[in-house]
Amino acid sequence: ILIKMLLFLSQANNSSFLSLFHLGFYANLLITQTPKHITAQAGNGAQLLCELRREHAGVYWYRWSQEKQNFEFLMFSSPMGKATYGTNMSQEKFSAHGASAHTYSLHISHLHASDNGIYYCSISQSSQLILGTGTRLSVGKHQPWGSKMYHCDEQGQGVMHGSGPFPILRCKDGAVRFEETYETG
């Protein structure tokens, strides 16, 4: 399910304010985001994927910050690779790639606790902003199992990226749960 919302962006004192107004719920037939949840170590990077059912002129990327209780406009990315960044958003931190007019990815580098949040890719259709399913990014401190990213796949299985000793992963509600037993690999 995704929420159909109106977007109002205003400028005041060189700051952008984003307000989203709820208009109703619609089945998510247009945008799919994967994975649903990523857990990554501070200092590392993360990649979020966005698949569109139809071609569009590009995607917008937003972050919902639970801490700040607001949506932040990160960037707009076109299929030709042109990017427009939000206020105080840097190219060193965020980069987007359009593999096609249907598939986009957002790369976030040098992760920090302030990067925690739910990331949404979105499209503009009929003067309305349509949000994807969202990807929750959880940035943790150094973990005993090394510098890897973890997420749940479409079948609800734990998936990890990286090397070193692997924890046993269990997925529930799209979130990865770690157990104390470790495998080596």
UniProtKB/TrEMBL annotation:
PROSITE patterns: IG_LIKE. InterPro entries: CD8B, Ig-like_dom, Ig-like_dom_sf, Ig-like_fold, Ig_sub, Ig_V-set. It comes from the Eukaryota. Its main location: membrane. GO terms for biological process: adaptive immune response; regulation of immune response. Pfam families: V-set (PF07686). It is found in: Membrane. The keyword Signal applies. Keywords: Adaptive immunity, Disulfide bond, Glycoprotein, Immunity, Immunoglobulin domain, Membrane, Signal, Transmembrane, Transmembrane helix. GO terms for cellular component: cell surface; membrane. It is a single-pass type I membrane protein. GO terms for molecular function: coreceptor activity; MHC class I protein binding. Signal peptide: none annotated. This is Uncharacterized protein.
